[in-house]
Amino acid sequence: MQHKPKVVIIGGGTGLPIILRGLRDQSVDITAVVTVADDGGSSGILRNYINVVPPGDIRNALVALTELPQIDKDIFQYRFESSDSFLAGHAIGNLIITALAEMKGNIFTAVQELSSLMKIHGHIFPVANEPLTLNAEFYDGTKMSGESEITAAHKQIKRVWITPSNDDDGHHAQAMKEVIDAIMDADQIVLGPGSLFTSILPNLMIQNVGDAVRKTKAEVVYICNIMTQKGETDHFTDADHVRVLNEHLGGHYIDTVLVNIQPVPEDYINFQEWNEISQPVGHDFEGLRKQGCRVISANFLRLRDNGAFHDRDKVVTELLNRLHDVHD
């Protein structure tokens, strides 16, 4: 039987499920490594009350890779209305993941159990088995903890790092062995698309995850964001995104970067609705080449709902092309 190429996608937020859905029906062995440092919305409330790993990004990854009918997905994603004060804003899937984590004693086992129940195509691994806190140092020398607070500060971030939320004994956050094995065995590691400092880097800042990405023989592909993000990457070029990743990893570890070169029409974006974004990411191809990157620049843009997104099919086609090039 032909070996299926192994692809590991590391991230969180809204970008991760888009790529997962695109890869689901391809002939690849998918592993999603999902961030657990989210502290906003329903996930943040559950995390604060029950001290559980925030389930939102995991829920979206499950829905992206499930083979269940649409009605089952809709139920899992259903969010209670604000008038239901007791359950306001909570997604049913978040409550199910939280309940299973309590039943099984940890989030990792719970997600594997749920993956089996939901007929998941591939693997979904929370990057850690405990809630993590994102910390940031800004260029003005101040420091802050908590993903939502860091973004809301709207300051230039110098570096981020991770600490366990239950850091009573000063222990370091570690990923499960399955996560590290998946990275080491992969043919391709995909980072993004997603928030640079709050969806991608929190995973890489876990010591054994960062080590595995540095050591793996897999090609490391970064899908560069189309728009800059307020409070995170204001005025960033594509080369700035890669520079920050490489600085945090301590060397030139990004092998290939996918860059959208299709202009975003100025009058199309509704900045009130998509209030996290500010402007299209600028291009600095010389800066990318200096970092030893292979640059794949193309029209990866999909305009919908007055926002700018990655065209899932075009991105997936390029990822598959890279896999074939590496294997040939």
From TrEMBL:
<protein>
    <recommendedName>
        <fullName>Putative gluconeogenesis factor</fullName>
    </recommendedName>
</protein>
<dbReference type="InterPro" id="IPR010119">
    <property type="entry name" value="Gluconeogen_factor"/>
</dbReference>
<keyword id="KW-0963">Cytoplasm</keyword>
<comment type="function">
    <text>Required for morphogenesis under gluconeogenic growth conditions.</text>
</comment>
<comment type="similarity">
    <text>Belongs to the gluconeogenesis factor family.</text>
</comment>
<dbReference type="InterPro" id="IPR038136">
    <property type="entry name" value="CofD-like_dom_sf"/>
</dbReference>
<dbReference type="Pfam" id="PF01933">
    <property type="entry name" value="CofD"/>
</dbReference>
<dbReference type="GO" id="GO:0008360">
    <property type="term" value="P:regulation of cell shape"/>
</dbReference>
<dbReference type="GO" id="GO:0005737">
    <property type="term" value="C:cytoplasm"/>
</dbReference>
<dbReference type="InterPro" id="IPR002882">
    <property type="entry name" value="CofD"/>
</dbReference>
<dbReference type="GO" id="GO:0043743">
    <property type="term" value="F:LPPG:FO 2-phospho-L-lactate transferase activity"/>
</dbReference>
